[in-house]
């Protein structure tokens, strides 16, 4: 329903808000389907960061969508035909929730039955993410890293001049005393929660991806209320850039360390004398690397977008 | 054959169709990106709903439970969500740059501007100076 409303709306602001609601609803849906880790990620990423980035870029473009020139009937026809074909394709798929579907036959039983003995981490999602499919996750961390670099180079802004430094841009919400005080009280809790999610990911839902995003959300809240210039005093862009790389290097470094100790790349068993301890250490380090990269990339994305908006304001004046 | 049990796929197909429609029928680039992310969520739903086992619980090992949902799709989608936001951010950055270069994010307006540019370049190549004062000045520099 929300998705349908999105197609019809002309006001892009409303569309972005609706897509935030849509993400939150899909997070609930994931929760219902037992995917707690996924719901966690979707709630923080989809409803939080993505809506914010959309709003920031909306500030730089026109708010209303123009009239469409094409005839929508043709598009509707193409879409309808594709949908019908897809539905025809689903007819011999296994039923929803059936335990004997092919997807549950291949590697999943091994993950569920043996991961406690092999990895020793109760949260199976974490053990697959960081250990069984560690290569995948390394690749995905690299994708995030690359996206961060891409946005950095696309939205590069010249270094702050002396003139700009003197008239530091005050945050739009500088006057909101209640918001500021509440945010000040909440910020340590948010950051603490992020750290909890980071290091408790082995036992409950959570891990590097979620923790990184939550950490970034805390910093973003601070930035929105206290101004970009203040936040950049703490998180200098050179520091952020270095940390982004440190995360990926930590991940890959663990892999290389495993190789040096005589195992395969990302084979944590050799890190300690006891394979299960080795797995614990490996997963902890790897998740830390993921968390650092995700957090810094998200903060960088937000900073770049907002800095661009601030620059637009200058041009208008 | 009982086909009601396939309803999860149909929800996915409908969502996918909506996303696809937004991407091809709308000209506003931000709208297109949102359509793309709806399309993406449809794929997420497909994976997660396939991993669900009726009566199962979240894949966190505990003595009280014996039936778990399949954790593999969860891992794939978990990372896909975060990768999705990073690629969306790159897309948004491109949109911002397009807005700065063309002053618009509507597809047909951009195409018209491009066509005009091309014609002007060709005219210039054939020696028709559309704006003489400007070209002389730029040569001097």
TrEMBL record, chain A:
Top-level taxon of origin: Bacteria
Domain Na+/H+ antiporter MnhB subunit-related protein: from-to ranges: 178-299
GO CC annotations on file: plasma membrane
Transmembrane segments: 12-31, 43-61, 73-91, 138-157, 177-197, 209-231, 243-262, 282-303
MrpA C-terminal/MbhE domain: residues covered: 101-164
Tagged with keyword Electron transport: no
Pfam family, one: MnhB
Cellular location(s): Cell membrane
Membrane topology annotation: Multi-pass membrane protein
Key words of the record: Cell membrane, Membrane, Transmembrane, Transmembrane helix
Residue ranges of domain MrpA C-terminal/MbhD in the record: 2-61
Family: Belongs to the CPA3 antiporters (TC 2.A.63) subunit B family.
Protein name: Multisubunit sodium/proton antiporter, MrpB subunit
UniProtKB/TrEMBL annotation, chain B:
InterPro entries named among the record's database cross-references: CPA3_antiporter_subunitC, NUOK/Mnh_C1-like
Cellular component annotations (GO), alphabetically ordered: plasma membrane
Pfam families xref list: Oxidored_q2
Localization per Swiss-Prot or TrEMBL: Cell membrane
Membrane topology annotation: Multi-pass membrane protein
Membrane-crossing segments per the record: 6-26, 33-55, 75-96
Keywords carried by this UniProt record: Cell membrane, Membrane, Transmembrane, Transmembrane helix
Family, per entry: Belongs to the CPA3 antiporters (TC 2.A.63) subunit C family.
PANTHER family in the cross-refs: ANTIPORTER SUBUNIT MNHC2-RELATED
Protein name: Multisubunit sodium/proton antiporter, MrpC subunit
Organism encoding this protein: Desulfofustis glycolicus DSM 9705
């Amino acid at each position: 329903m929300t998705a349908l409303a999105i197609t019809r709306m002309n006001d892009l602001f409303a569309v972005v808000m609706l897509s935030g609601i849509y993400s939150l609803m899909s997070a609930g849906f994931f929760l219902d389907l037992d995917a707690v880790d996924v719901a966690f990620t979707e709630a923080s990423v989809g409803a939080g960061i993505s809506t914010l980035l959309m709003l920031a870029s909306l500030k730089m473009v026109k708010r209303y969508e123009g009239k469409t020139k094409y005839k929508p009937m043709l598009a509707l026809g193409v879409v309808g035909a594709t949908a019908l074909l897809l539905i025809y394709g689903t007819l011999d798929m296994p039923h929803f929730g059936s335990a004997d579907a092919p997807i549950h036959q291949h590697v999943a039983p091994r993950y569920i039955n043996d991961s406690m003995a092999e990895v020793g981490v109760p949260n199976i999602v974490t053990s697959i993410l960081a250990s069984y499919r560690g290569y995948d996750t390394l690749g995905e961390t690299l994708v995030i890293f690359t996206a961060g670099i891409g946005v950095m180079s696309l939205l590069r802004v010249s270094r702050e001049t002396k003139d700009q430094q003197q008239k530091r841009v005050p945050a739009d919400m500088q006057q909101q005393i209640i918001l500021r005080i509440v945010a000040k009280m909440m910020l340590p809790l948010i950051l603490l929660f992020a750290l909890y999610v980071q290091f408790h990911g082995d036992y409950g839902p959570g891990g590097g991806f979620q923790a990184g995003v939550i950490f970034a959300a805390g910093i973003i809240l601070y930035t929105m209320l206290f101004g970009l210039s203040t936040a950049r005093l703490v998180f200098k862009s050179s520091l952020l850039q270095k940390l982004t790389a440190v995360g990926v290097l930590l991940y890959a470094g663990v892999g290389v360390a495993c190789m040096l100790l005589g195992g395969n790349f990302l084979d944590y068993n050799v890190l300690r004398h006891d394979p299960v301890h080795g797995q614990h250490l490996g997963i902890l380090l790897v998740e830390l690397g993921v968390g650092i990269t995700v957090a810094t990339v998200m903060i960088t994305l937000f900073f770049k977008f907002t800095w661009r908006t601030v620059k637009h304001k200058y041009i208008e004046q | 054959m009982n086909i009601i049990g396939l309803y999860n796929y149909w929800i996915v197909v409908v969502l996918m169709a909506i996303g696809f429609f937004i991407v091809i029928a709308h000209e506003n680039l931000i709208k297109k990106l949102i359509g793309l992310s709806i399309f993406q969520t449809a794929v997420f739903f497909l994976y997660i709903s396939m991993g669900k086992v009726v009566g199962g619980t979240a894949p966190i090992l505990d003595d009280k439970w014996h039936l778990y949902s399949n954790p593999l799709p969860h891992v794939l989608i978990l990372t896909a969500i975060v990768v999705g936001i990073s690629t969306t951010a790159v897309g948004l950055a491109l949109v911002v740059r397009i807005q700065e270069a063309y002053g618009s994010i509507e597809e047909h307006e951009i195409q018209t501007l491009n066509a005009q540019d091309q014609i002007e370049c060709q005219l210039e190549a054939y020696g028709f100076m559309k704006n003489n004062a400007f070209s002389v000045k730029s040569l001097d520099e």
